[in-house]
Amino acid sequence: MFRVFVRSSLILMGLSTIFPAIIGAQEPDSLPRWADNAELSFVLTSGNSESNSFGVRNTLTRELHSSTLRLDAGGIRVESGTITRTAVGTGQTDFTVSEQVERETTAENYFAEVRYDHPLSDRTYVYSSGSWISNRFAGIDNRWTGAVGIGIKLVTGDRSTFNVDLGATVASEDRIIGGTETFGGLRLTWEYTRQVTETAEFLSQLVLDESLSDTEDLRAKFDNSIRVAITGVLALKTGLKILFDNQPALEEVDLFDAPGGTMIGTVLTPLDEVDTQITVSLVVSL
Known about the structure:
mainly beta; two-stranded antiparallel ribbon; 286 residues; 2 helices; twelve-stranded antiparallel beta barrel; flat; Porin
């Protein structure tokens, strides 16, 4: 799965170089070039229990005259270990203890997205984007989505910004159970930023995706974070992401004839509609 994430990120990164190659020749050298934000979080426990959690995200942005190109990619992986101890010997005072650790991945998801925004006026713009996600614990092996749309800047103050856009999408989704499905849809997005203090910034993004093939198939991503600057380069970021799927993927579970009884087969049952992620990460801005 990690190889697929890297491959998808490289494909989208390659696509992101098309726009600079076309437009960059027309830009003065004095215009801003690239800006990068890298986030890293890691938790490791050992001893009587073992687990590790790793998260990474990178947002690469380029101002192309009055347009903006953004590449965003990241993922999380959580692994837990169950320790089993056994003793071998002749009695209470004569034995040796051995340990065996069985490791299991308990959470894993990855994403990559490239987006290009071009202004029509001071407040309106058009955009195009391509994205890929993989969340096997939510039943999604791969989902590729392309989108085009139009947006408006409702707030453009020094301390706050608020953008809303509406677009059309085409998605191809590979579910672990259920095969591949391709469908068109509509997407509503808002992005809000607020400079709370001189060193603290609040960011909020809501993405709503509605399938036109089945209007009951509504998906949402609500991503909120607060970033507090430590230095001019380093910041600490706390985030809450909520993922909603009104028609979640199916999971195959064992069927028993009674509690603790005999397994008589398997059944398909929907996974949870809501996933939440809480992260604390260190951000490096270049």
